[in-house]
Amino acid sequence: MSDDVHQQLIRKIKRSKLYALQLDESTDITHKALLLIYIRYVDWDEKEIKEEFLNCLELKKHTTGAEIFSALSDCFLSTDLKMSDCISIFTDGTANMTEYFPSNQDPRDGFLWILDPFSANSSTNTLSTNEEDMLADLSSDVTLKNLKNNSSLDKFWIEVHSEYEVLSEKALGVLFPFPSTYLCESGFSAVTATKTKYRKRLNVTPTLRLSLTNLTPDIDNICSHIQAQPFH
Question: Is 62 helix (H, G, I), strand (E, B) or coil?
């Protein structure tokens, strides 16, 4: 079931194209360094930004930025995810990785049009002339204004994606960063509860996937891959 949930998540991330990561590093009961990875992506089926546990990686001797980046690279390579699609990374207590994920300025600077596209001041925007024209067209749509007034910010920009793809993806890129490290903190609480002195050799990743996910295992799909055993 853990593998099924993981494959569902990977498919959703690939469809999302853009994603943000939250990382945190700690040690387990055996003093091994673990890296918890959470991911934020657009679930186009439900038209929402979702947060999910992605993986728990065991690091080697040194928890440096270089080692963490190497572990992430191997993890993403094994699932065929593109690290170039990562638009934000949020860490707390994890080795500095800014040389791998540039963050020279606040991505929200000049993006007030995202908060209210119907009263944005073009002089403070960071939009191209073509994008300004798109925004002017969007802001004149009464139906979309009603949608904005009755939707969350992320849901609004997801809803307009089919008609205003460029603006939608630019807006979502700013809305993607994680607001806190709560998910990783709760994840390590689950690690502590799962990997005890009586189960210190346990690979916790499958258990964490099932205990921390919001996805539901596809039982029909799982059963279809299990070979029936004939009766004798």
Answer: coil
